[in-house]
Amino acid sequence: MGDTSSSVRVFFALWPNAAERAALAAWQPPLRKLCGGRAMRADTLHATLVFLGDVAAQRLEALKLAAQEVEAGGEGFVLRLDRARYWGHNHIAYASPSTVPDPLALLVERLECSLDRHRFRFDRRAWKPHVTLLRNAHWTDAPLPDLPPVEWLAREFALVQSLRDERGARYETLARFPLGRAGGDMIPAGDVVRDWSRSPQLSKRDSSK
Ligand code: 2AM
Prior knowledge:
This protein is α+β, with helices and mostly antiparallel strands. The chain has helices spanning 18-25, 28-35, 60-68, 102-117, and strands spanning 7-14, 38-39, 47-56, 77-81, 83-87, 92-96, 131-135, 150-154, 156-165, 168-178, 192-195. Adenosine-2'-monophosphate (2AM) is lined by residues 11, 48, 51, 92, 123, 132, 162, 202-205.
């Protein structure tokens, strides 16, 4: 018998490909010059869609099924990250789109509806699409400089586990779900990315975003 009491900390996210990731990582040095803080490791850069937090391990299969029921129109969409911003409440500098593509807003809405139907709890505070670039950063209300826009072609979303060990946080992709048709694919084992830049204190999403 497995341990039915164990839980996993999970969230759904978009994960960039290598070129998109490199373009986003190129924003980090100029921002860090201004804001200080710690740069997120390039291979951990992502945009969270829905954050669930702790889910019973025995419900993971049901969670994947809930995601498989989500259908996004078309063959993915382009997310254009064209501005750098700073949040004072959690001291992060991030990239965000000035316009949220309709298919992305719809994807989050459908995902949340499906999670509701399957009785999963998740963070219901207003969703703001963003990619965290620096943590423990400091800035003022003044705008951050314009940086070369990043065109991110989203073709799938992922169920990701957030793990923690003595060296910090790391992320592990549990399943991927293609956009544009129903159905999710398991990915090969070992697709683990590490984020050693995180402090032991996870910053919480805040409703004031
Ligand atoms: P952040 O980058 O703005 O902190 C893993 O923690 C991912 O889930 C991060 O992208 C984080 O956003 C996001 N997230 C959303 N809500 C969260 C919460 N309540 N606690 C921790 N992370 C959260």
